[in-house]
Design goal:
By secondary structure, this protein is α/β, with parallel strands linked by helices. Helices cover 43% and strands 16% of the residues. The protein has two domains: 3-116 and 217-343, 3-Layer(aba) Sandwich (D-Maltodextrin-Binding Protein, domain 2), CATH 3.40.190.10; 119-212, Periplasmic binding protein-like II (D-Maltodextrin-Binding Protein, domain 2, 3-Layer(aba) Sandwich). It is globular, with a radius of gyration of 19 Å. This is ABC transporter substrate-binding protein.
């Protein structure tokens, strides 16, 4: 049975410095039952029909693992929780993992769920394009988190100096979008979940990350070396259950939409649900075989240097362990990839 443990890391905050968290904490997470994985995810969005289907159908049990799911607000909670051994595996953007590894954290990329980048820049009605962002205030989460880094990458590609845009921490995805609607900020970096609502709210979709920076990845499955040593089979089971859930959702659109609607507590026919599902289904965002977006992670490592986040590009290959994903896909059978990044 899958158990949702929502409060397990509430006390873990961004005040945990990466270097300290990487070395601190006890070994409790690694010494638990090897068939149990504590899995950290960000707050579910309109993509939850894909990302939560493994839990919904309890596919994990088929692969011999119990999954305890912890919902986290953002990278500001997720990476400290991982490094402090409060969770075993997280679904997160590789950018923060690269920075943590540079500070000594023993992390590995072991798979992915949705490597296609679903972010966009939303702007008030008086902002017509990315070029209009200069001088604007833009909502992000943490300075090195996905919303900030993808926004800066999109600015660079659009010939906008990132230093000319004021970045402000405005909370989670929905909070950032609502900050644009309410006029607290002029623009926001947030998922494509809000495209259906934007026109009604007088908000412009300035650009999609997929179109502007197609090499920028979204999610990877990230864990610690000690977890792989103590719970390797359970990590394989987690990956297998997640991949099976994604495949099931892609082949059963009505069930996937219903799960997303239930998760977000909206009507099943809400345009946000149907349009987001169509975007992911048709747009090549999914890791149908749990593929690790290695080329795209290397792009991020180089981007961090360009943005001044890192002084040197962090070597990516030593951080990749594809063996657990390969075992998982061996159980399921491989299917054709539809990730748009594989064709580049």
């Amino acid at each position: 049975m899958i158990r949702f443990r929502l409060a397990a890391v509430v006390a873990v905050t961004a005040s945990l410095a990466l270097g300290v968290a990487a070395c601190g904490g006890d070994d409790s997470a690694a010494s638990e039952d090897g068939a149990t994985i504590t899995y950290g995810i960000y707050e579910p969005g309109a993509d939850s029909g894909y990302l939560l289907m493994g839990q919904e159908k309890n596919f994990f049990a088929k692969h011999g693992v119990t999954v305890k799911v912890v919902q986290l607000k953002s990278a500001a909670q997720a990476f400290p929780a991982l490094l402090a051994k409060q969770v075993d595996v997280i679904q997160g953007n590789p950018s923060e993992a690269l920075l943590a590894s540079q500070k000594g954290a023993k992390l590995k990329f072991v798979g992915s769920t949705m490597p296609g980048q679903n972010y966009a820049i939303y702007g008030k009605s008086d902002l017509a394009s990315m070029s209009a962002l200069s001088g604007a205030t833009l909502a992000i989460s943490t300075p090195t988190g996905l919303p900030a880094v993808v926004a800066k990458a999109m600015m660079l590609q659009s010939s906008v100096d990132p230093s000319s845009v004021k970045l402000v921490n405005s909370g989670g995805s929905s909070d950032r979008y609502k900050a644009v609607v309410s006029g607290q900020v002029q623009a926001a970096s947030a998922p494509l979940d809000y495209t259906a609502q934007a026109a009604k709210d007088g908000v412009n979709l300035l650009a999609r990350a997929k179109d502007v920076v197609p090499d920028f990845p979204r999610y990877a499955l990230i864990t610690r070396d000690d977890v792989l040593q103590a719970k390797g089979d359970a990590v394989t089971g987690l990956i297998a259950g997640l991949v099976e859930g994604i495949r099931y959702a892609d082949g059963h659109p009505d069930e996937a939409k219903a799960l997303a609607a239930k998760t977000l507590k909206v009507a099943a026919n809400d345009p946000m649900i149907s349009e987001t599902y169509k975007e992911f289904h048709d747009g090549g965002y999914l890791a149908m075989n749990g593929e690790i977006p290695v080329k795209q992670i290397k792009y991020l490592a180089d981007l961090q240097v360009k943005l001044g986040i890192a002084t040197t590009a962090i070597p990516v290959d030593p951080l990749v362990d594809d063996s657990y994903r390969q075992k998982a896909v061996g159980q399921l059978g491989e299917v054709p990839s539809n990730y748009y990044g594989d064709s580049r």
